[in-house]
Amino acid sequence: MNSSEEVQVDLSLVKPVEINSIDLRKHDKKEVEIEKAVIMKVKSQYTKCGYQHVLKVQSVPIESYGEGEDLIEFRASELFNLIQDDDGKLIGYPTGDGSNLVQFMKDIGASIDKTNLSEIVKEIVGKKALIKSYEKDVEGRKRTYLKFRY
Q1: Where are the domains of the chain?
Q2: Per-residue confidence band for 43, with pLDDT thresholds at 50, 70 and 90
Q3: Lower Cβ count inside 10 Å, N or C end of the chain?
Q4: What are the DSSP calls for 13-53, one per residue?
């Protein structure tokens, strides 16, 4: 078959088929619990070392699809940049009023006045947060994602 070849089909025999799809937009402005906050490295073209340390915050599963090994869980997540030196060594976290982490912490009622990142993580986990759905074009198709409102 060529890339575009006309197919002869009796259209009266083609019936509707119900398929399952998940509309994540229905979760916009929903309040969820924060389940996890972990430190990760992600690739970055903006750093000399080629990666950026981030604090990844994610909610409990909001919706799921499938079962067992095929289970897919949908959750809200957000990456907050942390402070590192030119060699990529993690040295701190932002505390300025304009930083996304501080704005997020204020929004969920968590205190940013902590002495280390371990305390920040403990402060975040278990808090409630509002989520936001947004669409993004990925390879020509619109995909819906969930992140936190702040």
Answers
A1: 20-148
A2: very high
A3: N
A4: G----------GGGGTT-EEEEEEEEEEEEE-TTSTTSEEE
